[in-house]
Amino acid sequence: MENQHNMAKDILNAPYMVEMIRTASNMYDHGWDERNGGNISLMLDEKEVSPYLDISAVIREVPTGFDAPTLDGRYFLVTGTGKYFKNIKYAPEINLGLIRIKNSGRTAELLWGYSDGGRFTSELPAHLMSHASRLTVDTKNRVVMHCHPANLLAMTYVHSLDEREFTRTLWQMCTECIVVFADGVNVLPWMLCGTNEIGVATAEKMRTARLVVWSQHGIYGAGNDLDETFGLIETAEKAAEIYMKIAHLQIKNTITDKQLKLLADRFGVSPRQGYLDV
Question: What structural domains does the chain harbor?
Fold first, then answer.
């Protein structure tokens, strides 16, 4: 019994757990995750999990309601459904869960967390489908992050939802944008959230960009680690904030396509094909 207690204490000191709690708190402090708005999933290797948990001790099994065969046997640290981001740092074992995927993705085995009987976020289909999609593009991508940044949301009410136009506007707002997300931003029209349909649509968009805007709702970001993914969303949100501050004013200066190309060349990134008129 004491050994189990030590294990439970240990996992709260695991680097990925510390970073998950810190990131969720930071997202809440930024105003991106009001109430229970938003969710995070972090893919882990067995070698990262096994020092902290008995991976053969399954607390309970939860059906996922969809297929994700390429994720069989994968481990994920995931925020819980209905949980407030502001509470994660105070009670991580209630608000987070560590799961293992089995049965071609149809079942999640709970190995730690959701200690009040809760379960993973209702957006798990969108998360796992996006993980599977990103792995086909970049095997180092381990994070999917969803949140509700106010300026990106506002932008979906007043800006064209054409992906090329949306991306170009954001690139023109901050010098760093084309460097940070050269692959651009993909956009979905409003769809019912928490469904397999929006999961499939998001995963498809994730094949060509690490940022997917859900119109009038929020954004999905993917990356190699929590820090990078947070920074990706943070940069797009800053650009959207600048746009919302100036969109109603007469624009006298901008970053030209030629200058965007100079930036891309200087920092060794490849802008999304066909998005620059140079």
Answer: 1-121 (3.40.225.10), 123-278 (3.40.225.10)
